Amino acid sequence: MIQVQISEPEDEVLPDAKSPLIPIVLCLFAAMGGFVFGYDTGTISGFINLPVFLEKFGQYSDVTHKYYFSNVRSGLIIAIFSVGCFGGTHVGAELADRIGRRIGIMIATGIYIIGILIQITAMDKWYQYFVGRIVAGVAVGALSVLVPMFQSEASPKNIRGALVSSFQLFITLGIFVGYCVTFGTKDRPDTGSYRIPLGLSFLWALILIIGMVAMPESPRYLVSKDRIEDARRSVARTNKVPIDDPFVDAEVEEIQQNINFERLAGKASWGELVTGQPRIFYRLWVGIFIQIFQQLCGANYFFYYGTSIFQAVGMEDSFATSMIFGAVNFLSTFAGIYNVEKFGRRNTLIVGAAVMFACFLVFSTLGFNNLYPGGNTHLDSVKPVGNAMIFLTCLFIAAFAASWAPICYVVVSETYPLRIKSKGMAIATSGNWFANFLISFFTPFITHDIGFKYGYVFTGCCAAAGIFVYFFVPETKGLTLEQVDEMYESGVKPWLSSSWVPSVKPHHSTINDPSAHSYEKNEIHHEPIV
Prior knowledge:
Elements: H1 21-30, H2 32-47, H3 51-57, E1 59-60, E2 67-68, H4 71-98, H5 101-120, H6 126-154, H7 160-185, H8 192-213, H9 219-224, H10 228-239, H11 246-263, H12 272-275, H13 280-296, H14 299-312, H15 318-342, H16 345-370, H17 382-401, H18 404-415, H19 418-450, H20 454-472, H21 481-490
Antiparallel strand pairs: 1-2
Family: Belongs to the major facilitator superfamily. Sugar transporter (TC 2.A.1.1) family.
Keywords: Membrane, Sugar transport, Transmembrane, Transmembrane helix, Transport
Pfam families: Sugar_tr
């Protein structure tokens, strides 16, 4: 048994914590990593329906005398991005541990630029475009680990959920901007119809790199590498105080104590994800399933293939319809940022799953009973059904954006202790990309065979997601990352976790609580650690 006691003088009073404005700005700049992913999603869904794009990378039909994408080719072009992302999550974990969160984000963005360059220079070889999407996917997969990790370590605890949710907010903004740019170029008769949207990707990457150059590294990472003076400078820069300010001393001391305690259990390894305490293996699977269910709820069914779906129900301009979806998605994410701190993680996820279940159930029933698998644009009676399905899609996207879209990243970023966070987040996030690949690749085949009955699969997944959260996901709202460890160690039932009270009162700081004015005496007992 290992027992650790940490005490603070009762009469020590430290300066008022500084404004969280700087951490907010840092997290929003880092969230541009989500924007580049969203922008790719918003543009590729339109590209596969552009005549010029089809002519360059599609197949020619001797029957219709038109260019088209086979289910295999369209599935590969869209889904291969997710394969790259799957591998990129592990690249992100290695970058985070070896060279830091900040530099890791910059390197991943550089890889993204290379991927876009390969795509934009492709003339008529679809496999070159294919390779470019793999490379860009590796970068985005790395960013999907690095950015939430950086944000969770730089955020005050009382707004940590909202700031980590900004990663998803920027994904939705990227999707919307991607839809809008593609809508603006879709009528061009030349390759500018898809190369202009691709070229803008360089701008988004440049903004992210410039922003990261100006940012300090995560002080938690710096302390973990024994770069104490660098950590002090990082805290001072973040809070706009002199490096010898007592506030900086307290902040760094707290981080040191937390990391020193974690080191008592030895160096983190991949095997510790199975054997580590407290309940690391359980927490690993919580993160994996949260990420998988975020995909299996079915949102990317609309985001990747929305243009094609609503061409099938007779919409005259399915590109405009996709823009509406993108706007609903972006605006509703603000509700998600509010919900995560107001109502907590569990309640928001469960209610969101229930609303999405109802939407998909009615959507699928309308489509199955009123439309042919490939749609029917000739009957006037299809129009009201199409309008109703668009409304249900908007309602579904609003529910998704206000719940599962942002909050899954919050839950995963809060689930793992610092010493294994990069590895845990990498594996959990790779589950997201694996499920993303399954949906993006197999959707064309499944919809071709069973049409709108495919929606019943997502209906069942939404129900399963809500049930999973109720029985397995504890509430982490308002807890420091150290208190989350204590909660898992206590073995509290997830459905009772909202009322759980930690015995550990952390040091107060901008990382833990920017509104605190003093430090209280604390005694921390941890036992046992295996």
